[in-house]
Amino acid sequence: MDSVKAKKHLGQHFLADSNIARKIVEALRLPDGVTEVLEIGPGMGVLTGTLLENPNYRTSVVEIDRDSVAYLQKHFSDLTDRIYSQDFLKMDLGALYNNQPISIIGNFPYNISSQIYFQVLAHRGQVREVVGMIQKEVADRLAEGPGSKTYGILSVLLQAYYTIEYLFTVPPHVFNPPPKVQSAVIRLTRNTTERLDCDEKLFFKVVKQAFSTRRKTLRNALKPFGMPPEATTDPVFDKRAEQLGVAEFVKLTQHVQEHKVS
Q1: Residue ranges in the chain modelled with pLDDT below 70
Q2: Same domain as 119, residue 248
Q3: For the chain, what is the domain count?
Q4: Exposed, middle or buried, 259 (CB in 10 Å: 0-12/13-18/19+)?
Q5: At what angle do helices 136-143 and 113-122 cross, to 10 degrees?
């Protein structure tokens, strides 16, 4: 299996336009205290080469495809000791970067883009910024606010800790092979919320449970928490998950914590 076929198998398409690559890299802001930049899925290094042009970045890359790793080792000799041939979803960023703040960038494989953002959430104390090119449909969903049909679990969880900006749309013809859908670049910047004003683990559970049956009202969707009927008389329980913003979910989590029996 050659590299292009391998990357297509992994759900990724090569970016073949250097102008788009530069535009993506220029979207990095590097918040105060950040010099470490980790690129996910560099492939043939179109973004990598542009990143290495900036002496203010200490660029590392993580790539699971062996053919791509061999190519990067051959063509980016200065990067050899910072090419991680492993699965980003299993990386311990805290250990790798000694808990120092980092920025993340990449042309993310479509089939694991949501999982990448869940990994970002797991390291939200360390990941200060993410510039990612993903499927446009997913980008729209992450940046969407309450009231939209595309607003969902990851929208709420990411918006709790990050400011999300939809930057620009990328057409299929700039990739090899061209995907069947449009792509988009979004930027996540860590907000000032270090901790939510509730049990954060329960917050994640409440959000996921609320959206698990999104057509149901919260009164019905949250039944697994075992709250007594008298604890669900507040008008918020007449709403559906997609109608609540982050602050409302925080209050809902506080209420669930106070009244749940399971």
Answers
A1: 1-12, 262
A2: no
A3: 2
A4: middle
A5: 40
pTM for this predicted structure? 0.91
Determine the pLDDT at residue 177: 82
* Domain coverage including residue 153: 3-190
The whole-number pLDDT of residue 9 equals 39
Q: What is the CATH number of the domain that holds 230?
A: 1.10.8.100
**Contact (CB, 8 A) for 161 and 193:** yes
Q: Strand 36-40 relative to strand 102-107: parallel, antiparallel, unpaired?
A: parallel
Q: Are residues 49 and 151 in the same domain?
A: yes
CATH number of the domain residue 105 falls in:
3.40.50.150
165: amino acid identity, one letter: E
| Residue partners of 214: CB distance under 8 A and separation at least 6 | 152, 221, 240, 241, 242
pLDDT tens for 87-134 read: 999 999 999 999 999 999 999 988 899 999 999 999 999 999 999 999
Going by DSSP bridges, is the β-strand pair 183-190/127-135 parallel, antiparallel, or unpaired? Answer: antiparallel
- Shared domain for 173 and 221, answered yes or no, is no
CA pair distance 143, 168, nearest whole angstrom? 12
103 and 214, same domain (yes or no): no
How far apart, in whole angstroms, are the C-alpha atoms of residue 132 and residue 104?
Answer: 8
pLDDT of amino acid 110: 86
pLDDT at 262: 61
pLDDT for position 73: 93
Residues 145 and 234 in one domain: no
As a residue count, the chain comes to 262
* Cβ atoms of residues 21 and 50 within 8 Å: yes
Which amino acid is present at 262? S
Helices within 39-101 (DSSP H only):
46-52, 66-75, 93-96
